[in-house]
Amino acid sequence: MADIQVGVLSCSGEEYLGGTLARMAVRKVMEEMRPGKVVTLCLPLYIAGGEEERNFAKDYPVISVDGCGKYCAKNATLRFSGVVRDTINIADIVGEDTVLSEVVSMRDIKEEHYLMVNRIADEICQKVDVILTE
Ligand code: SF4
Known about the structure:
53% of the residues lie in helices and 12% in strands. The chain is α/β, with parallel strands linked by helices. It has one domain (6-132). Strands 2-1-3-4 form a 4-stranded parallel beta sheet, sandwiched between helices. Helix 5 (72-81) links the parallel strand 3 and strand 4 (86-89). Helix 1 crosses helix 8 (111-132). Bound molecules: iron/sulfur cluster. Iron/sulfur cluster binds next to helix 1.
């Protein structure tokens, strides 16, 4: 694979389960599935940040991972950096009703949620690998 890194930017939703699943999946990809190949930054810093953060999508091909169809991560990337390479709305993977369900405390994360995280992480990895092999 090419010696490049891919930016994966998760939305920061705390209100919906979708945001939690998105963040967990991005972390799993970074730490376990594609270590060293994926970089990220937190969405609030990106929105509040200066030039360095705004250049994120200029420095890395970015995949946005959103917890619902409001596409906060995608829209922030487009607004501040102008380009997004690929997008994921995890409602397309685990269902709209699931992502819009009330937030689940980290204490109450169950096996079913970890299985969803695995599916989302697999989808992210597929998109990362496409970019790395281009
Ligand atoms: S994309 Fe949806 S879940 Fe994520 S921060 Fe925006 S409204 Fe919240």
